[in-house]
Design brief:
Family: In the N-terminal section; belongs to the cytidine and deoxycytidylate deaminase family. In the C-terminal section; belongs to the HTP reductase family.
Binding site for Zn(2+): 44, 69, 79
Structural class: alpha/beta
Helix content: 25-40%
Shape: elongated
Strand content: 15-25%
Number of helices: 11
Bound molecules: ligand AOF, zinc ion
Distance between the termini: 32 Å
Domain CMP/dCMP-type deaminase: 1-118
Binding site for substrate: 163, 179, 202, 297
Number of strands: 18
GO molecular function: 5-amino-6-(5-phosphoribosylamino)uracil reductase activity; diaminohydroxyphosphoribosylaminopyrimidine deaminase activity; metal ion binding; NADP binding
Strand order of the largest sheet: 13-12-11-8-14-6-15-18-17
Radius of gyration: 23 Å
Largest sheet: 9 strands, mixed
């Protein structure tokens, strides 16, 4: 199973919104098939491993990091009939598939066919590996990572909105790497106005050379309640490279909706919630489009909107050794303070490491 898990990780970054899955077929103490799921839409790991094993799968044991599927999914036929036809003797599964259309039914079908089935081998590792998939497939919303570069006193900008640069070039490079791991990036229109980010994934080639743009780019999402985004904004350019979606409210002036659409930009009007883009509905819409992970890059108002509703799953804060001070400076999570200290959230699985002259503090937000 350890090998199957290692194989699964090779699909990292390419299987979304589907899970990373690894499979190993063992017959007479020897490995006769090994495979991993390479990309959404391509064959499932167990199908590839069984194909490799051929007739040697008869009487063999299959180690699989996720319960095999038994449903006709969007892209591929069910795997369970193939497992039965291969005449396996035993199937060892790390975890049940949380997908509501599978969830135990795959295992049941195998047992009914007389195959010995056990579940729970290295389950914790398997669950952690597919944290994003598990969240998306059960909630219909993307896994949300809140990322920010902040001072030691938790400020992300001066009162006037100056923020370039709080963190070191190394930390900014690490943040770019993070962009390359997600399906979409979300910012508020305030951030577009203040910083004019491109929100593309760029990897520097060598010191002194211009940045290289990666061929695959996450969807750029802007929350803009009244459509005040400037037409010259950098996120509206280079659309052949990276797509942009502007999430707005049904209260936004129709003329602006039309202008943007005429320019070929996708605008998504949603029923407003206290005059603003409703975050829960936006996330559900993104989830429906197959966005399983979302990186939120601020600012403080947008961060607060997601935070208040308990929609943040993970934080990655780059903390620089700067002290800014000032009540009017922008905080990483804006809005009003909760009434009691008991309402503060304690992160789990905390990890801290130095990146350049900054510290990257990352942790998981416990489910409420
Ligand atoms: C995978 N790879 O190795 C396994 C999966 O979109 P489809 O048709 O490929 O189906 C995706 C579902 O198949 C997924 O949600 C999960 O329930 C099941 N198993 N998926 O992408 C795999 N074994
Ligand atoms: Zn399958």
């Amino acid at each position: 199973m350890g090998l199957a898990l290692r194989l699964a990780t090779r699909g990292k970054g390419r299987t979304s919104p589907n899970p990373m899955v690894g499979a190993v077929v063992v017959s007479g103490g020897r490995i006769v098939g090994r495979a991993y799921h390479r990309k959404a839409g391509e064959p499932h790991a167990e199908v590839l491993a069984l194909h490799q094993a051929g007739p040697r799968a008869r009487g063999a044991t299959l180690y699989l990091t996720l319960e095999p599927c038994c449903h006709h999914a969007k892209r591929t036929p069910p795997c369970v009939p193939l497992l039965i036809a291969a005449q396996l003797r035993r199937v060892v599964v790390a975890m049940k598939d949380p997908n509501p259309s599978v969830h135990g039914r795959g295992l049941q079908a195998l047992r009914r066919a007389g195959i010995s089935v056990s579940v729970g081998c290295l389950e914790e590792e398997a669950t952690a590996l597919n944290r994003i998939y598990c969240h998306w497939v059960t909630t219909g919303r993307p896994w949300v990572i809140l990322k920010a570069g902040m001072t030691l006193d938790g400020k992300i900008a001066t009162a006037r909105g100056e923020s370039q640069w709080i963190t070191s070039p190394e930390a900014r490079r690490e943040a770019h790497r993070l962009r390359g791991e997600v399906d979409a990036i979300l910012v508020g229109v305030g951030t577009v106005q203040a910083d004019d980010p491109k929100l593309t994934v760029r990897v520097p080639r060598r010191a002194g050379m211009t940045d290289m743009v990666r061929p695959w780019q996450p969807l750029r999402v802007i929350a803009d309640s009244n459509l005040t985004i400037p037409s010259t904004a950098a996120v509206l350019s280079r659309r052949s490279l990276a797509k942009t979606l502007i999430a707005t409210t049904t209260k936004a002036p129709l003329r602006r909706v039309r202008n943007l659409r005429n320019a070929g930009i996708e605008v998504l009007p949603l029923e407003p919630q206290q005059g603003r883009v409703p975050m829960g509905n936006l996330l559900r819409e993104l989830g429906r489009r197959g966005i399983a992970s979302l990186l939120v890059e601020g600012g403080g108002t947008l961060n607060a909107a997601l935070w208040k509703e308990g929609l943040v799953n993970e934080v990655r804060l780059f903390v620089s050794p700067l002290l800014l001070g000032g009540q009017d400076a922008k905080s990483v999570i804006g809005g009003a303070s909760p009434a009691r200290l008991a309402d503060a959230v304690k992160l789990q699985g905390l990890r801290v490491r130095q990146v350049g002259s900054d510290f990257l503090v990352q942790g998981l937000v416990p489910p409420q």
